[in-house]
Design a protein that fits this description.
Elements (H helix, E strand, L loop, with lengths): L1 H26 L5 H28 L4 H23 L13 H23 L8 H18 L4 E4 L2 E4 H33 L8
Antiparallel strand pairs: 1-2
Length: 204
């Protein structure tokens, strides 16, 4: 009985992650500094649910087709929501967005492309779980977003001052490299599967 409940925990955590997103968005519409900190805490909790549900799923074998599809979808919505809200914020000093718009465009384009490929794969009865490369990409994005949310803080590393925004942008840039690499790999995989198992789709 207890093991059955544990196996459901990863999906519950994924649903919690989805539940937290609207609260984050509302706080970031026109935030004060304290609201940004609360939004950062909410984002951090949501990101931790992704880490925890993955650990539980691997340890207890709590992997389901629903989880394989829902977990990466929840990650995408969380990251895209955060990036859109970040690009809408402007620095009080320079007037520049907290994150460059072109980075957000690349992330959104990649996620839409991969989601479309997942739909193609699902139509052929193929469920492709998130790869390790995709998980690293998501981790880099989430860490980067936390730093970008805390953009005006400074950190002293080896006696050199770094802004949270600078650190966050570097994490996000590295994640973009993983994103493009993973998208190419995923495209190759799905298209090869589609070629080997062709099906005819009809409109309803």
């Amino acid at each position: 009985m207890a093991r059955t409940i544990i196996k459901k925990v990863p999906n519950w955590l994924t649903l919690l992650r989805l539940f937290l997103i609207p609260f984050f968005v509302v706080l970031m519409i026109d935030p004060t500094k304290s609201m940004v900190y609360v939004a950062t805490a909410i984002f951090g909790v949501a990101a931790l649910t992704d880490l925890i549900d993955g650990m539980i799923a691997r340890r207890y074998g709590a992997v389901s087709d629903l989880g394989k599809l829902l977990d990466p979808l929840a990650d995408k919505i969380l990251v895209m929501a955060a990036l859109v809200m970040l690009v809408a914020q402007r620095s009080d000093l320079s007037g520049e967005p907290w994150v460059p718009g072109w980075m957000v465009v690349v992330v959104l384009a990649r996620e839409i492309w991969v989601t479309g490929l997942r739909g193609m794969a699902a139509a052929r009865g193929i469920v492709v779980a998130a790869s390790d490369r995709g998980k690293v990409k998501s981790l880099l994005q989430m860490v980067g977003i936390v730093f970008l949310l805390l953009h005006d803080l400074e950190f002293l590393i080896f006696k050199v001052a770094f802004t949270a925004k600078g650190i966050g942008l570097n994490f996000l840039l590295v994640s973009l490299l993983f994103s493009v690499w993973g998208a190419v790999e995923y495209t190759t995989l799905v298209l090869s599967e589609a070629k080997e198992n062709p099906v005819t789709l009809t409109k309803p």
